[in-house]
Design a protein that fits this description.
The structure is a homodimer of 337-residue chains. Chain A has helices at residues 6-13, 17-24, 32-45, 51-56, 72-75, 79-94, 107-119, 137-144, 167-181, 196-211, 226-237, 251-263, 281-285, 297-312, and strands at 63-68, 98-103, 125-128, 148-151, 161-164, 186-189, 219-220, 245-248, 273-277, 291-294, 320-321, 326-328. The first copy, chain A, is of the alpha/beta class and 337 residues long. Strand 2 of chain A pairs antiparallel with strand 2 (98-103) of chain B, so a sheet runs across the interface. Chain A binds a DNA duplex (30 and 30 nucleotides) through residues 5-7, 15-22, 25, 27-31, 34, 49-59, 121. Chains A, B: InterPro entries: HTH_LacI (IPR000843), LacI/GalR-like_sensor (IPR046335), Lambda_DNA-bd_dom_sf (IPR010982), Peripla_BP_I (IPR028082).
DNA sequence: AGAATTTACTGAACCGGATAAGTTGTGGAG
DNA sequence: CTCCACAACTTATCCGGTTCAGTAAATTCT
């Protein structure tokens, strides 16, 4: 099926290509009557501007990129990314930007994808997740002058905009809550240790534990998978001084931890309190429902998308804090026996 | 940063633009020596062909589209789509096709997205999920002559290729297994009732129950969410003749069902056996781990991607059956007390 | 009324590749 | 030694938009 072009519209309206372009883009240079006639014809024949032609003549590609840097087996169950994607979409669709996705295995591969996308002019900007210390992606983005927004900080990203949430505050609130319930031995199962926000959380966890006079602040490193989360939980629970409360860096590990506790005959929350970071429907699904650090991930993503679009428009964007998690108590936390 | 074009390469190599194009695309018309020289220069300056220019001059957009037609709150937790995306990606990336994503609310909106994508020449083909009876999207795809592969059949899609799995066989196997364990009252919590594969499952469920002489084959319609799955379970379990086994159309509802059973003081699998359709890590995470109908969703997605790429290349593709689920028994099924 | 400005257009160049058609230079056949 | 075929290019055109430089007519200004 031949797709209509502005030349077709021009012919039917009896004007030149240029006039059609001005009319459809709301540019001055055509009379209101002509504009309406042209718009009507475009509507009638179902015209959509060829994005390639548009991108080629200097305009933007009207697309942004997102890489997913987790193994497939984690991606499929980790609710975070899908939440993020939903949030992006809401913003992007409203301004008719497309979202281009690519699953990558390593940061190096991710850099290659950025280079290619940018070289191909396929995208106008990218959303970068999982900021690390001395992240290798940052200098590349700066060198390419590729508009970007980084999620997962705060960290050192130079001029590149960031959207981050106050993880330190959230974990402090959580520990205080558990201590108020009477817990003295609180452990944590952390996310990937080289991610910057994991480090932020670990540091804040240690600080608040020290401040409250708890003698230890054990963080078991993990990788966000259920299996690892379960293993870490088992290691924590077989010790002599087993903790009475565990904070998990994501919901998947928390659910796995709950299963391990039940399997070991420990009552939740009687023998063990559990707190999950990131509240997904998963947390309310299990029994008992999990106390969680909720934040609106979709809104977080929408916020990042807005910042990115602003950066693409050349506006100077700054670091913004958005969507800090707050504690949602449910059935998995109680005073220790 | 100025991005290099073939004109830059041509200048440095002392040849014409045309020669560069032939050299980089493996076309005849340049000597092997020149070709290597040109390729080396392209490598050195980090050349990537402008996808817009390429798409504009008749070639394909080298991108395919996927719409996600579920509310954000389901998408975030439903492992199916992410698994599918991972599978697509593996195939698409290998042939350097990009994946463009859009979240939509209704089939009508989905059609609009298809029209726009195709009109804009943004994509070369689409992957269509959630086939319905008399699906309104099919005639539009045919009219647009937009290459497509449909997942979620089998159903009537005319010339459009399909990739489907033998759901009827899987559910038959499951019911036979439960009956062999001694169950006589088996219920099911189904997915969205207007999806074709839900109907296939429902029909097959009824048939096998009749064939095995079970007096009823109750299917509670649901919508794949944990809340609805939990509610449906509760309705099933408060009846006088409550079932001793329940089959769920996805893992999220199965986990919710497990929580409801535990909350009502029923032992799983002692008082109630549970089978989940689609085995995600979620099923192994909970306690007891859920018996599930496993299939390799990523491979299913990869298969669909291969078929779509074949369709885009103009090859005649037929309906293929792929990735039929098989029963993976775990701790949630046992003979009834 | 005539000049200056504005309005409403047209025509053409341009973006960066792909590709058909034309132009050399070389070697082999006759 | 000439003619022809073919390899190895170059040149020019096209894809479908955007945008700039013109241009004729209408309007405003003095």
């Amino acid at each position: 099926m031949k797709r209509p072009t502005i030349a077709d519209i021009a012919r039917r309206a009896g004007v030149s290509k240029g006039a059609v372009s001005y009319a459809l883009n709301g540019q001055p240079g055509v009379s209101e009557a002509t504009r309406q006639r042209i718009v009507a014809i475009a509507q009638e024949i179902g015209f959509n501007p060829n994005s390639a032609a548009r991108a080629l003549s200097g305009a933007s590609a009207r697309a942004v990129g997102l890489t997913l840097a987790r193994p497939a087996r984690i991606l499929s169950i980790e609710p975070f990314f899908m939440g993020l994607i939903s949030g992006f979409e809401a913003e992007l669709a409203a301004r008719s930007y497309a979202l281009t996705l690519q699953v990558v295995a390593t940061p190096e591969q991710e850099i290659e994808v950025y280079r290619r996308w940018w070289g191909e002019r396929r995208i106008d900007g990218v959303i970068v997740t999982d900021l690390r210390e001395n992240d290798v992606r940052i200098p590349v983005l700066q060198q390419l002058q590729l508009p970007a927004v980084v999620i997962g900080g705060p960290g050192d990203t130079g001029k590149i905009a960031q959207v981050w949430s106050d993880d330190a505050g959230a974990i402090t609130e959580t520990v205080r809550y558990l201590v108020a319930l009477g817990h003295r031995r609180i452990a944590r199962v952390g996310g990937l240790p080289d991610l910057l926000h994991t480090q932020t959380r670990t540091r804040a966890f240690e600080e608040v534990c020290t401040a409250l006079g708890l003698n230890e602040a054990v963080t078991m490193p993990s990788d966000y998978t259920g299996e690892e989360g379960g293993r870490a939980t088992r290691r924590l629970l077989i010790g002599a001084d087993r903790p009475t409360a565990v904070i998990y860096d994501n919901d998947v590990m928390a659910v796995a931890g709950l299963a391990v506790a039940q399997e070991m005959g420990l009552a939740v929350p009687g023998d063990l309190s559990i707190v999950a970071w990131d509240d997904s429907p998963l947390c309310s699904l299990v029994h008992p429902p999990l106390t969680a650090l909720s934040r609106d991930i979709a809104e977080y993503g929408a916020h990042a998308a807005r910042e990115l679009l602003a950066a693409i428009d050349g506006k100077q964007v700054s670091n913004v804090e958005a969507g800090t998690a707050h504690l949602t108590p449910r059935g998995s936390t109680a005073p220790p026996r």
